[in-house]
Design goal:
The protein is extended and about 60 Å long. Helices cover 46% and strands 13% of the residues. It is built from 6 helices and 6 strands; from the N terminus they run ββαβββαβαααα. Helix 1 runs parallel beside helix 6 and helix 4 crosses helix 5. It is α+β, with helices and mostly antiparallel strands. The longest helix is centred in the last third of the chain and has 22 residues.
Length: 157
């Protein structure tokens, strides 16, 4: 048996985007992804203790900051609560990514942390439809960048 060696194909450049009038449109920066990054860092810094460790909201274990995820009680698919500080807390990677029943512990500790009334409001907010403008995204990105800068200095991380 023998093999025929083929030349590697050049990767084609992505085709430019055109609007209805045929004018080339520049792709907008992914503002939601940028806000996700800044907001996630904020939540992890907010819940981090001064010694560089955090307590997982689901299992209660104390772990180093590097092992923290921004865990959402109501899924990130609900835009109305995706960037809600009451919905998001530091959670260890194991609970957030691999543990199927992590929401049981999360729920108990969340109610203990924010109270039953705020939890009920959060629950109703999660069922609402929501849409954000580019301006709102940009303002929130600026806000959380500034907070993160301050918290990084305070926590010494």
């Amino acid at each position: 048996m023998y093999y025929i060696k083929r030349k590697a194909k050049k990767k084609d450049k992505p085709l430019p985007l055109f609007d209805k009038a045929g004018v080339t449109v520049k792709k907008k920066p992914d503002l939601k992804a940028k806000l996700d990054k800044e907001f996630s860092l904020f939540i992890r810094l907010r819940d981090c203790m001064p010694n560089g460790y955090f307590k997982c909201i689901s299992c209660g274990q104390i772990k180093p900051f590097e092992q923290a995820d921004c865990g959402h009680y109501f899924s990130r698919t609900h835009l109305s609560t995706r960037f809600d500080e009451n919905n998001c807390h530091a959670e260890c990677r194991h609970c957030n990514r691999f543990k199927a029943d992590h929401l049981e512990g999360y729920r108990e500790n969340l109610i203990e942390k924010i109270g039953q009334q705020k939890f009920i409001l959060l629950k109703s907010k999660a069922s609402e439809a929501s849409k954000m403008t580019d301006f709102e995204y940009e303002q929130l990105i600026k806000y959380y960048k500034a907070l993160n800068k301050k918290l990084l200095k305070e926590k010494g991380i």
